[in-house]
């Protein structure tokens, strides 16, 4: 049936017209773009927010619900009960089973993210940064910062493109750092109630240090670990840390390099630097570790791998079984791509059990990267569930934090010089000076807002088989947080039993994410 133009216009208006949904202190201005759920629209003067989290008194619990049906961190409260509600399913908190402590959650300040944020008016920029970093926002505490260009840049560059400059006399930060990333990081830090944990990752060494003479494609450092290229590449890291320190930005950690496996792929389309685990082990032992130790940044952590977890535990075994490399390393950074190919217990679990003194950290994830499901999907609830499922699975296998990829992208999922467009929790519409908070933004919020640094994962057991996925934590102040994901299309009723306080009767609507929090004393 052919629709008239006016009917089409009306249908489009109904599809994208704002609808207010109750969400705490400010309601979500919801827009539906036909991808299963809604986005929340924000501008310079208005954005939904749950504000600062305030725990109810002992004997009460707080709940926060997000769902495919349109709830966005919808707050609730109720009394803790003396008796069970009689629901068939009971989730029991086991506080004496103690696991890893949380480091934090966050995203990446890529060139693309910085460009998108700065494309908005100053008021809207502030609004966007507040959503992530302020105490009224979702409590991001980690920011990954690419060292020089990556695919989410508009050009190829490093900080020293002068051939054979082994003394790094020409090392200089790029305009992208000085005019965009650094000012935004300073603004984010000023808003944040705690010091941000900055994490640096390099995509490629300068072309003159590399076997293929190019930033892209299959190539690694010339020579051998301990040789002049490897020593210079380690000093390049130190120079980067020194330059950022001039702007009062210090780094919690550096990684040994983004996705070293990519540098072994013939015709790889964007910036990469190949390392085998053996080469990475020797470079850390002979070059990067000693250089960092001798620098002004001896307390900056080194995270190995920075690549997909399916490379574990083999990669960790090669590097960490070497006493010379192992003494400089603090943790293992993993990316989420290809997670479905290897069970978390085999990769993350095995690595933790062999090397419990090294922490596991989620360093990169994004939706819309797969060729069969590419780019931005405004309002995709499926992607929100992918995030929550992966975070819960990682947390339940000893991971101490989880970092999303670009903090903000445009409506095409860029800019990206190689057109490797993906999705982001925040999508910017420069023309209208607005941004959309995707369902994945709220997925992140259910963890980043409530799992403060130092929160410790504790045991939680289900009385019967269930479709629910969950993880429980005791925070530094003794309060308990339980995060529950229901990816099924059924309503699931359950009780939470905390032996310290009693029963919390609860319901997980279909396709929902629920955070429960309560005091124990």
Automatic annotation (TrEMBL):
Upper taxonomic lineage: Eukaryota, Metazoa, Chordata, Craniata, Vertebrata
Example GO BP: regulation of macroautophagy
Domain (Glycosyl hydrolase family 30 TIM-barrel) ranges: 102-451
GO molecular function: beta-glucosidase activity; galactosylceramidase activity; glucosylceramidase activity; glucosyltransferase activity; signaling receptor binding
Keywords for the protein's UniProt record, in alphabetical order: Glycosidase, Hydrolase, Lipid metabolism, Signal, Sphingolipid metabolism
E.C. number(s) listed in UniProt: 3.2.1.45
Tree of life domain: Eukaryota
Source organism per UniProt: Sphaeramia orbicularis
Localisation per UniProt entry: Lysosome membrane
Any single GO CC term annotated in Swiss-Prot or TrEMBL for this entry: lysosomal membrane
Catalysed reactions, as listed in the record: beta-D-glucosyl-N-octanoylsphing-4E-enine + cholesterol = N-octanoylsphing-4-enine + cholesteryl 3-beta-D-glucoside; a beta-D-galactosyl-(1<->1')-N-acylsphing-4-enine + cholesterol = cholesteryl 3-beta-D-galactoside + an N-acylsphing-4-enine; 1-(beta-D-galactosyl)-N-dodecanoylsphing-4-enine + cholesterol = cholesteryl 3-beta-D-galactoside + N-dodecanoylsphing-4-enine; beta-D-glucosyl-(1<->1)-N-octadecanoylsphing-4-enine + cholesterol = cholesteryl 3-beta-D-glucoside + N-octadecanoylsphing-4-enine
Family, as annotated: Belongs to the glycosyl hydrolase 30 family.
Keyword Signal among UniProt keywords: yes
UniProt pathway: Sphingolipid metabolism; Steroid metabolism; cholesterol metabolism; Lipid metabolism
Protein name: Glucosylceramidase
């Amino acid at each position: 049936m052919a629709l008239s133009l006016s009917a089409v216009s009306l249908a489009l208006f109904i599809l994208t017209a704002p609808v207010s949904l109750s969400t705490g202190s400010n309601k979500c201005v919801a827009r539906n773009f036909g991808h299963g759920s809604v986005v929340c629209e924000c501008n310079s003067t208005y954005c939904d927010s749950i504000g600062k989290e305030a725990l109810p008194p002992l004997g009460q619990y707080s709940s926060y619900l997000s769902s495919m049906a349109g709830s966005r961190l919808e707050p609730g409260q109720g009394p803790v009960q003396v008796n069970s509600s009689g629901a068939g399913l009971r989730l029991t908190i086991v506080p004496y089973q103690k696991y890893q402590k949380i480091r934090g959650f966050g995203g990446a300040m890529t060139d693309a993210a910085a460009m998108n944020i700065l494309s908005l008016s100053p008021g809207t920029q502030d609004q966007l940064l507040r959503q992530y970093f302020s105490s009224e926002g979702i409590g991001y505490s980690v920011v990954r910062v690419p060292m020089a260009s990556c695919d989410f840049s508009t050009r190829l560059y490093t900080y020293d493109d002068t051939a054979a400059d082994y003394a790094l006399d020409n090392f200089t930060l790029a305009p992208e750092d000085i005019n965009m990333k650094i000012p935004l990081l300073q603004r984010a830090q000023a808003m944040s109630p705690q010091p941000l944990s900055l994490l640096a990752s390099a995509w490629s060494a300068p072309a003159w240090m590399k076997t293929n003479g190019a930033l892209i494609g299959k190539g690694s450092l010339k020579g051998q670990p301990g040789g002049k290229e490897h020593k210079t590449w380690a000093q390049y890291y130190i120079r980067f840390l020194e330059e950022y320190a001039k702007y009062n930005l210090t780094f919690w950690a550096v990684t040994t390099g983004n996705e070293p496996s990519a540098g072994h792929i013939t015709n790889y389309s964007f910036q990469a630097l190949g390392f085998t685990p053996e080469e990475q082990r020797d470079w850390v032992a002979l070059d990067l570790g000693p250089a960092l130790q001798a620098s002004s940044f001896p307390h900056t952590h080194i995270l190995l791998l920075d690549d997909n977890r399916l490379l574990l535990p083999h990669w960790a075994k090669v590097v960490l079984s070497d006493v010379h490399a192992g003494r400089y390393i603090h943790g293992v950074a993993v990316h989420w791509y290809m997670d479905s190919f290897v069970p978390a217990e085999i990769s993350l679990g095995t690595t933790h059990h062999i090397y419990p003194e090294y922490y596991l950290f989620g360093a990169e994830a994004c939706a819309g990267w797969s060729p069969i499901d590419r780019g931005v999907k405004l309002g995709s609830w499926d992607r929100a569930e992918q995030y929550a499922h992966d975070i819960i699975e990682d947390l339940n296998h000893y991971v101490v934090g989880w970092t999303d990829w670009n903090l903000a992208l445009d409506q095409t999922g860029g800019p990206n010089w190689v057109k490797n467009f993906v999705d982001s929790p925040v999508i910017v519409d420069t023309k209208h000076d607005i941004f959309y908070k995707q369902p994945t933004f709220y997925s992140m919020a259910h963890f980043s807002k409530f799992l403060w640094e130092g929160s410790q994962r504790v045991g939680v057991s289900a009385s019967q088989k269930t479709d629910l996925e969950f993880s429980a934590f005791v925070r530094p102040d003794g309060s308990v947080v339980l995060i529950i994901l229901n990816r099924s299309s059924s309503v699931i009723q359950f009780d939470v039993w905390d032996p310290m306080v009693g029963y919390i009767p609860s319901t997980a609507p279909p396709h929902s994410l629920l955070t429960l929090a309560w005091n124990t004393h």
